[in-house]
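Per your request, structure below.
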């Protein structure tokens, strides 16, 4: 038997989490980024074999891509983006949060909520990073090299995506012309 519990956080409730994230951002500015990432790795490792509710486990699984994005020098996060990622990881790794992590079953509930909020805030960066990592893997295979030794940067990925989009646009235009569906709308012949 399973039990479904839905939480609805009001704007007032979310203020607590926003304040905590703001405080984590301030703290992250004074902490060593490598230590923040190492502490987040530690939390994931410590919880790997713990029996946690699936709601919490699913959220903890979303932290891995945040860590990878923060560590990936090729992706070149801006200072602001990096700061937001470090703040998210710092909150997770901080054992003194709204619900202490040592409380059985519910200890990571506040962390899971914060992870959801952070993943939503970082959604575009995480989607871009996922695309970048996938492209880098394909590029490494195409070149026959180890992806970790490829050394591509985000600008190369962005250029490749720009070229891909332009090629798709031209191909669609040519297909439209070839099918006879082209009907000029920008100008008319009288």
């Amino acid at each position: 038997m399973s039990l479904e519990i839905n939480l609805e956080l009001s704007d007032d409730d979310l203020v607590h989490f926003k304040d905590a994230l703001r405080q984590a951002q301030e703290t992250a500015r004074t902490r060593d980024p490598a230590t923040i990432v190492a502490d987040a790795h530690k939390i994931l490792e410590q919880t790997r074999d713990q029996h946690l509710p699936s709601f919490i486990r699913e959220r903890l699984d979303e932290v891995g891509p945040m860590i990878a994005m923060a560590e990936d020098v090729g992706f070149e996060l801006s200072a602001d983006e990096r700061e937001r990622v470090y703040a998210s990881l710092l909150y997770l790794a901080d054992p003194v949060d709204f619900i202490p992590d040592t409380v059985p079953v519910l200890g990571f509930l506040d962390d899971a909520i914060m992870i959801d909020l952070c993943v939503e805030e970082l959604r575009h960066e995480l989607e871009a990073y996922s695309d970048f990592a996938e492209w880098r893997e394909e590029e490494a295979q195409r070149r026959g090299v180890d992806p970790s030794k490829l050394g591509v940067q985000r600008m190369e990925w962005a250029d490749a995506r720009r070229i891909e989009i332009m090629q798709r646009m031209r191909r669609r235009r040519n297909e439209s012309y070839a099918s006879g569906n082209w009907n000029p709308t920008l100008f008319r012949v009288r």
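DSSP finds eight helices and no strands in the chain.

Regards,
D.
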